């Protein structure tokens, strides 16, 4: 049975607390500026779908989406669903992998990006254009020279709370960061997934006595807390596909090991 600090949640902005300790993210140049090779896999699984101190290493990123463009995200904002949600899953460098970290306190950190339907996104097109090539379980396709950070919107402002994985065993080991700015894709791009890849989201869970904080004044006004560096800058170095997911796409990159 799952616990009392489960994810995703419906973020009620009126109840969010401002935390001046939360700073703007500073990602290493490795993830921001280097072209890497990305493998996309249809893994075919089924089922339910304060500030970060230390270094966290990327394991994988994946998407959740629905059968209609008004519902597909796992997190909600004031009861509003979004078309999709992208998760960048990281483990603390205190542990060797997501599998090792998933049942440890603050062992994982997940960056959540809400995806809305709007203009066409040329960066998403590089992924979506290959979806038909992985219409069967365990099929893969490789994308050369792909920048993960090219998918990111502005990351100045975000929500932070402590929660769980959204897939069984729902371990409550995750530092969640949900960014204010959305990623936009076109309706055509949003509808590019196969039937086996949709409705792979978990519904919001009760917040119970949990607290959601933000680094932006008045729950994402235009004024954000002045950004300083984290004690150790969040590290995005490796991308694997070890975390269990439902019908989601796993993406693996060929980042080199740290020297």
What does this structure look like?
By secondary structure, the chain is mostly beta strands. It has a single domain, classed as Roll (Carbonic Anhydrase II). The protein is 8% helix and 27% strand. Strands 2, 4, 6, 7, 9, 10, 11 and 12 form an eight-stranded mixed beta sheet that branches. It is globular, with a radius of gyration of 17 Å. Its cofactor is Zn(2+). InterPro entries: CA_dom, CA_dom_sf, Carbonic_anhydrase_a-class, Carbonic_anhydrase_a-class_CS. It is found in: Secreted.
Structural class: mainly beta
Number of helices: 4
CATH architecture: Roll
Question: What is the CA-atom radius of gyration, in angstroms?
Answer: 17 Å
The global form is globular
Q: What name does CATH use for the topology? A: Carbonic Anhydrase II
Largest sheet: 8 strands, mixed
Q: What distance lies between the first and last C-alpha atoms, to the nearest angstrom?
A: 42 Å
The H-level CATH homologous superfamily, spelled out, is Alpha carbonic anhydrase
CATH class membership? Alpha Beta
């Amino acid at each position: 049975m799952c616990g009392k600090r489960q994810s995703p949640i419906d973020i009620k902005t009126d109840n969010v607390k401002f935390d001046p300790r939360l700073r703007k993210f500073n990602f290493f140049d490795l993830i921001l500026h280097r072209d890497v090779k990305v493998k996309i896999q249809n893994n075919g699984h089924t089922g339910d779908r304060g500030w970060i101190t230390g270094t966290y290493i990327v394991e994988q990123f994946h998407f959740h989406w629905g059968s209609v463009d008004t519902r597909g995200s796992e997190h909600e904002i004031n009861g509003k669903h979004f078309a999709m949600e992208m998760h960048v899953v990281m483990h603390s460098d205190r542990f060797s992998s997501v599998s090792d970290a998933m049942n440890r306190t603050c062992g994982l950190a997940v960056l959540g990006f809400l995806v809305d339907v709007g203009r066409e996104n040329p960066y998403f097109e590089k992924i979506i254009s290959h979806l038909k090539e992985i219409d069967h379980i365990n099929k893969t396709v490789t994308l050369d020279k792909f920048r993960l950070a090219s998918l990111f919107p502005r990351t100045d402002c975000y929500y932070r709370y402590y929660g769980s994985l959204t897939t069984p065993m729902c371990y409550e080991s995750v530092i969640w960061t949900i960014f204010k700015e959305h990623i936009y894709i076109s309706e055509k791009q949003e509808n590019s997934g196969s039937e086996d890849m949709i409705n792979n989201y978990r519904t919001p869970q009760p917040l119970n006595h949990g607290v959601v904080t933000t680094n932006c004044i008045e729950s994402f006004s235009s004024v954000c807390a002045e950004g300083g560096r984290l004690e150790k800058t969040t590290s995005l170095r490796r991308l694997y596909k070890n975390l269990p997911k439902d019908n989601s796409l796993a993406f693996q990159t060929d980042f080199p090991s740290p020297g």
